[in-house]
């Protein structure tokens, strides 16, 4: 029986960065869905039931910290693995990301190998 690929939601407002992440992740055999703003990302996280969320911090509408916080408050999405990505590399930003519930906080530019390691680790593959 062919295993069903894991579904990853990417919430990123920069189209070229979104495409790059999409390419990296799809090449590894994951199904990918994307959203380009916070409200759409939050709705898709609840409706599409992804196996993992890759979430930018700086987004139009709701920022990644708020999305993460809301997902953690909702019993349906409280356990969803979340990797936050940001150009904001200060320790305070990382601490905030982890405090609101992100499993991982990676800074841009993203190291492809590190991203894939984190995804594999969170999905238990």
Description:
- With 125 residues, the protein is an alpha/beta fold.
- The chain is 43% helix and 19% strand.
- The chain has a five-stranded parallel β-sheet with strand order 2-1-3-4-5, sandwiched between helices.
In CATH, what is the homologous superfamily?
Response regulator
The string of secondary-structure elements, in order, is: EHEHEHEHEH
Given the structure, what is the number of helices?
Answer: 5
Residue share in helices? 40-55%
Return Rg in Å.
13 Å
Beta fraction of the residues?
A: 15-25%
Integer tally of domains: 1
- CATH first level: Alpha Beta
* Distance from first to last alpha carbon: 17 Å
Work out the number of β strands.
Answer: 5
Predict the CATH topology.
Rossmann fold
Order of strands in the sheet with the most strands?
A: 2-1-3-4-5
| Low confidence ranges | none
Note the quaternary state here: single chain
Query: What profile does the largest beta sheet have?
Result: 5 strands, parallel
Structural class by helix and strand composition? alpha/beta
3D shape: globular
Present the secondary structure layout:
Elements: E1 7-11, H1 15-27, E2 31-35, H2 38-47, E3 52-56, H3 64-73, E4 82-86, H4 91-99, E5 104-107, H5 112-123
Parallel strand pairs: 1-2, 1-3, 3-4, 4-5
Short synopsis of the structure:
With 125 residues, this protein is of the alpha/beta class. It has helices at residues 15-27, 38-47, 64-73, 91-99, 112-123, and strands spanning 7-11, 31-35, 52-56, 82-86, 104-107. The model has no long low-confidence stretch (mean pLDDT 94).
Structure characteristics:
125 residues; alpha/beta; Rossmann fold; five-stranded parallel β-sheet; 5 helices; 43% helix; globular
